[in-house]
């Protein structure tokens, strides 16, 4: 065994771990970044980047079809789409990420890190000790349902779905969350026969109710068959693929099965049980990322279960790095050492067609939090949207805290609405009153005109 000493050891070399390590290294602390697979993590190779690379060409094709005068075909060049996806993953080669880490003053350590003592991490035959802190940023892993037959049948997780080398003839997707709907649409547009099986009455059930309805319309328009309110009862291997049996006896046969039924914090096999943390459960952290009861241990990203999104994990990682540098204890909210936005100002985009852009609380969540709310709903039907695409179809919702007259939630659904999300995020984080927001004049003719229509409908 060999040993080495650092100020900070970060376990998990994805975007979240990179941000935490980059922050402490930039602050002059000797920092190790430990990664068991590829530096760059899930987002770079199997999630955010490849999935959006698969989806974007379909969006462009759909947008072109909505614009008279633009010459366009009916199908994508699947081979070119897959090749471009592979370029975005650097063909699953992480040497560029390693070079970035070294250039940022971080020491990359390849191997599985296990916490074997106080401020001690063992990686293979190396024992690393941390003078300041150990940060866990190992992300999340797929949650596998207890479905009879599943363990005996080869199936896809999100990794296989984003890294497949060819378009499957047919695909059945189990799960109507973000991964399920995005991958169902991506592969359908690329030419697969896709069936989506969801247990709720609509996809994306955690969003405002109209979101799932509009996304379902978009999926069906691309040829996806949707079974709603459907429970999978068993799965088996058959000639040519897999057979999924639903609770009502319906059988769905496809070449591949994608199981997209959620994820859980990746806290297994890290040695955390010695510190009272149950394997597979989220790290209990405060807003600085410090683990409850363990003064030197921090967590950020999916592993905390707080806001399982790459951008939000990176935000929390920056707070963790700043907190370690400052040795922050009970700092004020909305300062750089705390992830205050995790509680009620989390933005999210679902990259389907139509897109979904959401920040803050849904109307139901706002009411459950005890707020007195007013909800304003509108179709997105302004000059900007009419110019943007023929037959533009979209909806917007604004949730207002009537006591403070501030926005606490905003949802947009429609083509290219993601680019309006940051304005909504600023309004929610900044607690901008509707009276002040009235003076933020939207440029004409853009889709952002919907802001004016929302405020007019509110009563201004």
Automatic annotation (TrEMBL):
Binds 1 FAD per subunit. Residues 6-312 form the FAD/NAD(P)-binding domain. It comes from Umezawaea tangerina. Its cofactor is FAD. Keywords: FAD, Flavoprotein, NAD, Nucleotide-binding. NAD(+) binds at residues 175-182, 262. PANTHER family: DIHYDROLIPOYL DEHYDROGENASE, MITOCHONDRIAL, DISULFIDE OXIDOREDUCTASE. The keyword Isomerase does not apply. This is Dihydrolipoamide dehydrogenase. One of its GO terms (molecular function) is flavin adenine dinucleotide binding. Residues 346-451 form the Pyridine nucleotide-disulphide oxidoreductase dimerisation domain. Belongs to the class-I pyridine nucleotide-disulfide oxidoreductase family. FAD binds at residues 52, 113, 138-140, 302. InterPro entries: Class-I_Pyr_Nuc-Dis_Oxidored (IPR050151), FAD/NAD-bd_sf (IPR036188), FAD/NAD-binding_dom (IPR023753), FAD/NAD-linked_Rdtase_dimer_sf (IPR016156), Pyr_nuc-diS_OxRdtase (IPR001100), Pyr_nucl-diS_OxRdtase_dimer (IPR004099). Pfam families: Pyr_redox_2 (PF07992), Pyr_redox_dim (PF02852). GO terms for biological process: 2-oxoglutarate metabolic process. Disulfide bonds join 43-48.
